[in-house]
Fold this sequence. Notes:
By secondary structure, the chain is of the alpha/beta class. It folds into 2 domains: about 80 residues; about 220 residues, Rossmann fold. Helix content is about 35%, strand content about 20%. The chain has 10 helices and 11 strands. The strands form 3 sheets. Strands 7-8-9-5-10-11 form a 6-stranded mixed sheet, sandwiched between helices. A 3-stranded antiparallel sheet has the order 4-3-6, with helices on one face. Strand 1 and strand 2 form a beta hairpin. The radius of gyration is 22 Å and the shape is globular. The termini are far apart. The site of magnesium ion has 3 residues, from helix 3.
Amino acid sequence: MGLLFLHLDHGKVTLYTGGYDTFVATRTAKRALDAAFAKKQEAAREHMQSFVDRFKAKASKARQAQSRMKALAKMQMVELPVDERVAPIRIPAPVEASPPLITMHDASVGYEQGKPILERMSMRIDPDDRIALLGKNGNGKSTLAKLLADKLPLMDGELVRARKWVPGYFAQHQLEELDGSLTPIETLSFLRRALTQQQVRAQLGGFGFSSDKAQTKVANLSGGERARLMLALATLDKPNMLILDEPTNHLDIDARSELLNALNNFEGAVILVSHDRRLLEATADRLLLVSNGCVEPFDGDLDDYRRFLLSGENSPTRREQTPKRARVA
Ligand SMILES: Nc1ncnc2c1ncn2[C@@H]1O[C@H](COP(=O)(O)OP(=O)(O)O)[C@@H](O)[C@H]1O
Ligand SMILES: [Mg+2]
């Protein structure tokens, strides 16, 4: 049996096994990790700040910039313990495309001809758009996400995509479609036969897969690891439009932070469906409300949206009718 050291530091007790040298070595390694993490968090914070600065200039996005500033303030308080930190997520840089990525005019979509779920949709999506799809369950958020990802055909109206539009689509149901008998390496290789082993391993590495995990059968992976695998798959083609339908449901809190950072660093368009308030705050600049068979810009920020949900109303009351306290800039 080696020696046990109980180390007290800033009110935290850490147990070290082994001799004093081991204690010092472990302690030094831990400090280096802490420093690296602090640096990474600072970089993420700076990135978010640059978004805030950029969007504050645009009157139409000022309110979203405010949400992001709140997220920024919260982020500075987040400090993850070293042992619980997870590998960062790296989304490949997007293929460049000239705007707009997608334009829609009077578009309808649904599952059965003559019975559209969503109608009369008109919108434009640009390469730097960060859009959250809001709306109650069953209203058609996933249906719209599928239309945008080209997983569902247009029923009526017009939809034009940029020539170099590359989608990256993630949805929960895909997790069930993974073949449990394959390893992550085999899964990616099977779906993209043109990729070399090295490219496959690099992509998996970017989503936190160690060499061991990359060779573990999918059936033996955790829900979070499967979600990471799906994200690795969704981003293989260097998408310039990420369409993420509830991406964090299986991710633990650290992996959520990693996804948040990765999305903030990602330079392409993001379409997000999520109940994760922190992710929405940090990611979305445009809010679209899916309700009553249609899609409209949501006139308000995420606080207004929460109030709208709590009110139980079917459609939001117009701002003019609900005078509010002046917002502090
Ligand atoms: N594969 C499908 N076939 C037929 N109807 C569907 C299918 N998927 C969803 N729907 C219907 O479309 C409507 C919108 O569903 P969905 O887009 O999943 O909503 P949300 O993602 O906002 O919860 C619901 O009425 C749902 O029953
Ligand atoms: Mg859905």
